[in-house]
Amino acid sequence: MKAKFKSLSLAGIAIFIAVALINFPGEVLKASERGLDMWWGTVFPSLLPFFITAELLIGFGVVRFIGVLFEPIMKPLFNVPGVGGFVWAMGMASGYPSGAKLTTRLRQEKQLTKIEAERLVSFTNASNPLFIIGAISVGFFHDERLGILLAVCHYLGNALVGICMRFYGMNVREVPERKSSRMSFYKALQELHRTRLKDKRPFGKILGDAVINSVQTLLMIGGFIIMFSVFTKLIYLIGIASIFASVLGIGLQFLGIPTELALPMFSGLFEITLGSSLISQAGITSMLPQAVVISFILAFNGFSVQAQVASIIAETDIRFAPYFFARILHGIFASILTIIFFKPLYLDHQVINLNYAPVFSRGESGFWTNISQGLHLVGPVITLFTLALAAFILTIRITNKKNYL
Question: What is the pLDDT of residue 178?
Answer without folding.
Answer: 55
